[in-house]
TrEMBL record:
GO terms for cellular component: cytoplasm; membrane. GO terms for biological process: fatty acid metabolic process. InterPro entries: HotDog_dom_sf, THEM4/THEM5_acyl-CoA_thioest, Thioestr_dom. This is Acyl-coenzyme A thioesterase THEM4. It comes from Actinoplanes philippinensis. It is a peripheral membrane protein. Its main location: membrane.
Length: 218
């Protein structure tokens, strides 16, 4: 019997994945902000390679989903924006408030573009996720075909952020969604705005793109 065939095992694995994610995010912050002596950098690199070795002993292939994920239930622990297990994710937390998706996160040094501010690509990544979530939440899931971002003011690092997204229009397969980034302290001052166009997949497109992952088209 696999380690997670009962619900308790699954919860324990998800908690462990998030714990590992927290440790990795701390490591990335420390490694990005460090001014430690060069010898300490080399020592840390050797220790980190050693620590990571057991993780590589059993690894998924490209079309294998994580055993702790639930794709249809929307659990994606390694999503690079929201996943608690992703070293790369801030992670962004999103919840529903009526017909608006509301997100929160704080960006550390690893997301820096202009000194002390977030990289523009990171803002676009956060907004793509927010808009995609709003589409799914409204019952119109789709893939991004266009994302337009307007950078009005730089997004500060180490500052709690508030993001919003909502669906503005649905025209057959084409969904338009809009979103914003502001600081939590001053949510009325919009730093970045985005408009995204999403397209609902036709069944044959879903099969072509995701059949191998869903185990129906290898
Ligand atoms: C709760 C879950 C939260 C999940 C959040 C996830 C957020 C992240 C989302 C992503 O990042 S998705 C990854 C990035 N996106 C992609 O990789 C998509 C790549 N694009 C494709 O694979 C194809 O474009 C796609 C399969 C989606 C659609 O192919 P089609 O050949 O069906 O598109 P087509 O060009 O025929 O356009 C279909 C409709 O969209 C319209 N369209 C396409 N591009 C457009 C555009 N740029 N602006 C406006 N409309 C557009 C097009 O006019 C047409 O409208 P009509 O049906 O009314 O005729």
């Amino acid at each position: 019997m696999s380690e997670i065939e009962n619900g308790q095992g699954l919860q324990a694995r998800r908690a462990a994945i998030t714990d590992l994610g927290d440790a990795l995010r701390l490591l990335i912050e420390q490694a990005t902000a460090t001014e430690a002596p060069t010898a300490d950098l080399l020592r840390a690199a050797a220790l980190i390679r050693q620590a990571g070795a057991p993780l590589g002993e059993r690894a998924r292939g490209r079309f294998e989903t994580a055993s702790a994920d639930d794709l249809l239930g929307g659990v994606r622990l390694y999503n690079p924006v929201t996943g608690g297990g992703s070293a790369f994710a801030p992670p962004l937390e999103i919840h529903r408030d009526g017909d608006v998706a509301v997100g929160s996160c704080t960006l550390g040094r690893a997301f820096e573009g202009p000194p002390s501010f977030a990289h523009g690509g990171v803002s676009a990544m956060l907004l793509d996720q927010m808009l995609g979530y709003a589409c799914g939440m409204s019952g119109h899931p789709g893939m991004t075909v266009q994302l337009d971002t307007a950078y009005r003011q730089p997004v500060p690092l180490y500052t709690p952020l508030r993001l919003t997204a909502r669906v503005a229009a649905v025209d057959r397969r084409v969904i338009t969604a809009t979103g914003t980034i502001a600081t939590a302290e001053d949510p009325a001052s919009i730093l970045v705005r985005a408009t995204g166009t999403f397209v609902a997949l036709l069944p044959e497109q879903a099969q072509r793109l995701f059949g191998p992952v869903m185990g129906r088209g290898r």
